[in-house]
Specification:
alpha+beta, 2 domains, two-stranded antiparallel sheet, 21 helices, 11% strand, globular, binds iron/sulfur cluster
Length: 478
């Protein structure tokens, strides 16, 4: 299954708000676009009320994933990239108390969050398990309706425009069009360029060299800020599971109770020791930090999803801190290579847990990180793709079973596993001759998609199977 489309690095890495790219970021963007479409159709001032219908996985795990909150923020016109996340609880409380929502933060309409957002637990829309219908009551007699799908990683698509969108993106005349890993490898061989150099040339179709570099460094800065906030925030995560944040406790132990200072944290981390255990602890700590922030509705980079947002920052920070990788050009190369691998998975399989389980989230992020790390550690393009293949091969079949519908158990710890597997995969590839490899990245992409199709729907972000039903916590406690 290859969907021919051209995907920018900045489609794969997006700055947003936790806890879920498909259940929070996607519905947020769809709601915002719906209101913008009301404006374009000159309907906004006639809107009397709005109703939102959530289907499939969006209904089943929407409460735990903050879909209702995201939809209200989107209808209110807030931008997930820049919103001050500390203001979110206040905005939602106000909507609840006043039963009024300000469309685009300006135009009041009656909105009861309980009756205005309907969770259709037993129904799915045909195109994708994450379906959402918005209906606006226009004047006294008519309605305006749009159907949207959140298709994973914060990507959204509107019913009626699915084919049009794909046709438009197919037309993007990139110098090195890539749908399969084999094509990427051919471009590298034919041009004698690294993966990141090929991707950089393609990216220039959308933006200038300076915009690419500064945009990627901003992505990196957002990742690092997120790690720092996670490493310095204590307490319980929201949602009712009473999960205690651990990254700050581990940080304190590793620093032997010295205060963590963002200004010179690299020195502090290195001074705390760089033996095997210490490095392993820091990598896990970085991954936990990001996903605790994600679970707390904090600012994260979708990479390629929010549930798996900790893997790439943890591996990149491992490289920066422990492999002398503190160089902007290397950080940019890492991200470019990782993004291309993510895009190959999106085209040939899926990055949506509602379609493919957790292999589509943690598995893909681990493969992306493995490829990025291999390139900056000096691996050849073949070794990068081999590393991505190894990382995914050992995530195949991984199910999605978030307890209480929250992106906390097993999600937060699972990022540590994805990060460590990525580092191991990179090391294995660097010590191997890829000519001898029996499995290609394209083989594993296809296998992941086949596995996704065979996977029981209970394990696809529904919280109806696996850990979600086997640990003694009931949904009513959440
Ligand atoms: S189990 Fe995996 S795929 Fe499912 S919500 Fe958690 S991190 Fe995402």
């Amino acid at each position: 299954m290859v969907v021919e489309e051209r995907i920018s690095v900045f489609d794969i890495f997006k700055i947003g708000v936790g806890p879920s790219s498909s259940h929070t970021l996607g519905p947020w963007k769809a709601a915002r676009q719906f209101v913008q479409n009301l404006v374009q159709n000159d309907l906004l001032l006639q809107v009397q009320s709005i109703q939102v219908h959530l289907y499939g996985s969006l209904a089943k795990t929407g409460k735990g994933h903050g879909t209702d909150t995201a939809v209200m923020l989107g209808l209110s016109g807030f931008d997930p990239v820049v919103i001050d996340t500390s203001t979110i609880p206040g905005i939602i409380t106000q909507i609840n108390n006043k039963q009024t929502l300000l469309l685009l933060a300006k135009y009041p309409v009656h909105f009861n969050p309980v009756s205005g957002i309907v969770f259709h637990y037993q129904e799915s829309l045909p195109y994708h398990p994450n379906g959402i219908i918005f209906t606006a009551e226009i004047g006294d007699t008519s309605t305006y309706t749009e159907t949207w799908y959140s298709i994973g990683g914060g990507f959204i698509t509107k019913e009626g425009e699915i084919d049009k969108v794909n046709n438009e993106v197919v037309a993007a005349p990139l110098p090195y069009p890539i749908d399969y890993a084999a094509e990427l490898l051919n471009w590298c061989k034919n041009t004698n360029k690294s993966i990141s150099e090929i991707v950089f040339q393609n990216e220039k179709y959308w933006r200038s060299e300076e915009e690419i570099r500064s945009g990627l460094l901003n992505i990196y800065k957002t990742m690092v800020d997120c790690i720092y906030r996670g490493c310095t925030s204590a307490g319980e995560l929201p949602g009712g599971l009473r999960v205690k944040r651990r990254a700050s406790e581990i940080t304190k132990k590793l620093l032997q109770d010295r205060t963590f200072n963002q200004g010179n944290w690299a020195e502090q981390i290195k001074a705390a020791g760089s033996n095997f255990h210490s490095i392993l602890d820091w990598v896990s700590c970085f991954a936990l930090a990001v996903n605790e922030e994600n679970a707390a509705f904090g600012r994260v980079v979708t990479a390629p999803t929010n549930g798996s947002a900790g893997v790439i920052p943890a591996v990149l920070q491992y490289y920066v801190m422990f492999c002398n990788g503190d160089r902007e050009d290397k950080i940019i190369s890492f991200l470019l290579t990782a993004a291309e691998v993510g895009s190959i998975f999106k085209k040939g399989s899926t990055i949506s847990a509602a379609m493919g389980g957790c292999q589509a989230e943690i598995g893909v992020s681990s493969a992306m990180a493995a490829a990025g790390l291999t390139e900056v550690l000096g691996g050849s393009p073949q070794q990068c793709l081999m590393a991505a293949e190894i990382a995914m091969e050992h995530h195949l079949g991984l199910t999605c079973d978030p307890v209480g519908g929250l992106v906390q158990i097993p999600c937060i710890e699972r990022n540590t596993m994805g990060a460590i597997k990525a580092i191991t995969a990179a090391q294995l590839a660097l010590h191997s001759n890829p000519e001898n490899a029996k499995v290609t990245l394209d083989d594993v992409v296809k296998t992941m998609w086949d596995t996704a199709q065979d996977m029981n729907s209970r394990y696809k972000e529904t919280s109806e199977g696996g850990l979600a039903i086997n640990i003694p916590i009931s949904l009513s406690e959440c």
